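Subject: Protein record for review, amino acid sequence with backbone structure tokens
Category: Structural biology, sequence-to-fold work with a learned token vocabulary.
Format: Residues in single-letter code; tokens as whole numbers, each standing for a residue.
Body of memo: The sequence and its backbone structure tokens, given next.
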Amino acid sequence: MSQPQQSRALIIVNTDFCSSDGDVGLRPRRGARREAEKLSCVLAQLSYRVKLLHNRTAKEMEDLYQQECGREHGDYFVSIISSHGEEGAVLGCDCRPLRLTRIFHILSAQNCPVLTERPKVFFIQER
């Protein structure tokens, strides 16, 4: 008898920001790493398979959501992004925006059949 698949959680926390020319773009987000680690522990206690990643570019974040479409999932998918942001977008550590609509499009039933009819819960914290 096979075990049911674990629900998955993807946590991305960006704390340090630079522009493409290497200049410091935005102030560091102190305390965000600690908060994300606490959330990771809580979700693991709830039997989620948690992937916690720090300081990802906008492209790397987009790629992470694309990769979720090829993974096996349990009953739920939880996404937590903690970063600087702007209206309708979160910023990668490269100070480039990733539109939230792009993430939702990647995880749509048409593009990500593995998550069809599975609840997807998103938490976005930006400052």
Remarks:
- Residues 40 and 125 are 15 Å apart (CA to CA).
- The first helix runs from residue 32 to 45.
- The two ends are 47 Å apart (CA to CA).
